[in-house]
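[recover] target loaded
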């Protein structure tokens, strides 16, 4: 069902949570990550008028009075810096109740040259909200000097960065590999937020671990004495409803059984 506001359809949004509005300025991405469900999306990009309508809808429609956070995803929003700046400018002007804007991206890894002065300006500190960057770093081998410089540039622009690592068989499904990654993230000032159970995508079975293997690795991260509790991420499963943190004993934080997931 489409959303209408000011007599127009509001394109590129999802309202999954009471306090968060999800915005997709573009479905274009810098790479095709096999483990990413968004790699299967059709190509589409919003106009400046679309983004300004979203901001007005977010700020003035009564159903959004509780929205305090905007999650910008795609695709990869930082592929088109003009779109992200248009959206942030419009939110600053029209949605003063928004306190945090989160931007999901792998551009610093896939094309770090894009993180330049133009992008830093777009992500500058705003008067009404804080910018956070959500990124996927799956192995410390991805952290080339250019990549580290790109993340540092985003931090210097004022963005806080947190990581969501996808657990992939044969790539990072060992305690030593994960400890090495999360150590590096801590040194870089990046929060290790989620360790994701890989979603079931066609052609990815060889890279998917079981839920039990993920839970055991998560337990080892906390019990091995090799890591600080400050860098232990939540082991999380994507469901049809939302992301659900899992714990030992086959239970989730919502009390949902993990059997068969």
């Amino acid at each position: 069902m489409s959303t209408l506001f000011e007599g127009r359809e509001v394109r590129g949004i999802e309202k999954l949570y009471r306090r968060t509005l999800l915005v997709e300025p573009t479905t274009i991405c810098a790479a095709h990550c096999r483990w990413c469900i968004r790699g299967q999306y059709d190509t589409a990009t919003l106009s400046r008028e679309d983004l300004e309508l979203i901001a007005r809808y977010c700020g003035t429609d009564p159903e959004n009075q509780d929205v305090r956070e905007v999650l910008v995803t795609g695709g990869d929003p930082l592929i088109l810096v003009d779109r992200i700046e248009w959206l942030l400018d419009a939110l600053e002007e029209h949605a003063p109740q928004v306190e945090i804007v989160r931007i999901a991206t792998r551009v610093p890894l896939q094309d770090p040259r894009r993180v330049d002065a133009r992008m830093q300006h777009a992500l500058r500190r705003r008067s009404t909200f804080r910018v956070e960057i959500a990124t996927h770093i799956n192995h410390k081998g991805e952290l080339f000097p250019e990549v580290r410089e790109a993340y540092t540039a985003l931090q210097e622009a004022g963005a806080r960065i947190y990581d969501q690592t996808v657990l992939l068989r044969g790539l990072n499904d060992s305690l030593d590999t994960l400890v090495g990654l999360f150590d590096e993230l801590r040194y870089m000032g990046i929060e290790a937020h989620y360790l994701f159970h890989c979603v079931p995508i066609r052609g990815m079975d060889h890279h998917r671990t079981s839920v039990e293997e993920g839970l055991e690795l998560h337990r080892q991260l906390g019990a091995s004495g090799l890591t600080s509790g400050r860098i232990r991420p939540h082991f999380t499963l994507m469901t049809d409803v939302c992301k659900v943190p899992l714990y030992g004993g086959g239970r989730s934080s919502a009390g949902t059984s993990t059997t068969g997931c």
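[recover] notes: Confidence is low (pLDDT under 50) at residues 253-261.
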